[in-house]
Write a structure and sequence with these properties.
Elements: H1 13-20, H2 24-31, H3 40-53, H4 59-66, E1 71-76, H5 83-97, E2 101-106, H6 111-124, E3 128-131, H7 138-146, E4 151-155, E5 166-170, H8 173-186, E6 192-197, H9 202-215, E7 225-228, H10 232-243, E8 251-254, H11 257-269, E9 279-281, E10 298-300, H12 303-319, E11 328-330, E12 334-336
Parallel strand pairs: 1-2, 1-3, 3-4, 4-5, 5-11, 6-7, 6-8, 8-9
Antiparallel strand pairs: 10-12
Helix pairs in contact: 1-2, 1-3, 5-12, 8-9, 10-11
Length: 341
């Protein structure tokens, strides 16, 4: 290979071509994986030259040429909740297989931030969106979809299929919560409270609690249903309120694992034994659920699979023929029994 003729600034395809002793057109074919007729030795020489020069494709220029940014967006409610990074891992694994990057937006489940993320997606020219929205509706997403940007939503329950290219991946949170509370009833607990959430999956999981109790001939005690904010501190505060009840619960179902862990801390600080005095049920099966002491009984939502399935649906629309109408795919759940019940 000829000696590198370095120029100041960012290396270009022409620089790679000079170093490899080939045309710029051949370099472009190789670097864009379109070099079907280029000999293997020439291809290897071009790749070696690109590595030696530190050549990085100009994604902005490429986007102008092929009308693709090679990026997808993942909009989530809380980047500090371990549930969502686990989903993002599944999304990223699929995106990398197709040569795409993933931009993550943290929206805090806030309407203004969700709208801001959507505006950013459009201004950046992002090719597609995967999102767990707490506030946005199909109507809110219509301008994005009509602009040619496909969207896959992560949903807490089945939704009606849209006539737009809007796909849904969901776990039946009502049924999953019902299974969780069924377990508490089967273990003999009768005064079951809940640390719920006002938005996102909270209402679906509360509905599951009510359905389970009704199926067992029991009524939910409204004073034992308190709201948290899906954080550990929110679970701690909610559990403290429940302990101040005239008749505290003998079991608590938290709408996610972080709140369940906050409840465990509150019970420990109050000197209560888990599960002898109060049982605790979580939801999500984040990695820390099996590490806390006592280990947390919870519901596994298979986050990695959730992310992978959402990304596969998105890339079917980005790279090949897909139905013009929306699709809906259900991901299973699994009760994971540990020491807190």
């Amino acid at each position: 290979m000829a000696a590198a003729s370095r120029r100041p600034g960012r290396p270009t395809q022409m620089d790679v071509a000079r170093l490899a002793g080939v045309s710029q057109a051949t370099v472009s074919q190789v670097l864009n994986d379109k070099a079907t007729m280029v000999p293997v030795e020439t291809r290897q020489r071009i790749l070696a030259a690109a590595e030696e020069l530190g050549y990085v494709p100009d994604s902005t220029a490429r986007a102008l040429r092929v009308r693709s940014s090679q990026t997808v967006a993942f909009i989530i409610p809380d980047i500090t909740n371990p549930f969502y990074p686990a989903v993002e891992r599944g999304v990223q694994d699929v995106a990398e297989r197709y040569g795409y990057d993933v931009i993550v937006y943290n929206a805090d489940g806030d309407e203004a931030k969700e709208r801001k993320a959507i505006r950013s997606v459009r201004s950046r020219g992002v090719d597609g969106v995967i999102a767990s929205f707490f506030r946005m509706t199909t109507t809110d997403l219509r301008p994005l979809l009509e602009h040619g940007v496909p969207v896959v939503r992560l949903e807490p329950r089945a939704r009606r299929v849209s006539d737009l290219p809007l796909d849904n991946v969901f776990t039946d949170n009502v049924a999953a919560a019902r299974t969780a509370v069924d377990h508490l009833v089967d273990k003999g607990y009768r005064r079951i409270g809940m640390i719920s959430g006002r938005s996102g999956p909270g209402p679906a999981r509360l509905s599951g609690l009510r359905q389970s109790l009704a199926a067992h001939g029991m009524k939910a005690v409204e004073s034992l249903i308190v709201e948290g904010d899906f954080t550990e501190s929110g679970g701690y505060s909610a559990m403290r309120r429940l302990l101040r009840s005239r008749r505290p619960p003998d079991a608590v179902f938290a709408a996610n694992d972080l709140m369940a862990m906050g409840a465990l801390l509150a019970l420990r600080d109050a000197g209560a034994r888990v599960p002898d005095d109060v049982a605790v049920m979580g939801f999500d099966d984040i990695p820390a659920a099996k590490l806390v002491s006592p280990s947390l009984t919870t519901v596994n939502l298979f986050q990695d699979r959730l992310g992978r399935q959402a990304a596969e649906l998105l890339f079917e629309r980005l790279r090949g023929p897909a139905p013009s109408v929306g699709r809906s795919v259900e991901i299973p759940y699994e009760l994971v029994v540990r020491e807190t019940t």
